[in-house]
Design goal:
The protein contains four helices and no strands. The protein is mainly α and 92 residues long. The N and C termini lie far apart (64 Å).
Length: 92
């Protein structure tokens, strides 16, 4: 267990640096989710399960979903056309 904590802290630092320097907002959200999950594992290893559950639920769950919805609303995420919609356009 003594070697796990430094490895997780290193991953935490790597995630923080990659979020700061990534250009794609979708990639930044996914890396942020990884950051929150690593942080929740660290809280669990520090024997603080209430903080671990909160970090996993709020940090990786709710916040990331809200960011995905915000990116979709501002059209930063391209929504692919389904096959049905494409066929309807071809028939017109």
């Amino acid at each position: 267990m003594s070697f796990v904590m430094p490895v997780l802290l290193l991953f935490l630092i790597v995630c923080a640096v990659f979020v700061a320097f990534t250009q794609n907002p979708l990639s930044a959200i996914i890396i942020y989710m990884a950051f929150s999950l690593i942080m929740s594992i660290i809280w669990a290893l520090m024997q603080s399960p209430d903080l671990a559950i909160t970090e996993a639920a709020v940090g990786a769950g709710v916040t990331s979903i809200l960011m995905f919805v915000a990116l979709k609303k501002i059209h930063a995420i391209d929504v692919k056309e389904t096959g049905e919609g494409k066929e309807d356009k071809d028939n017109e």
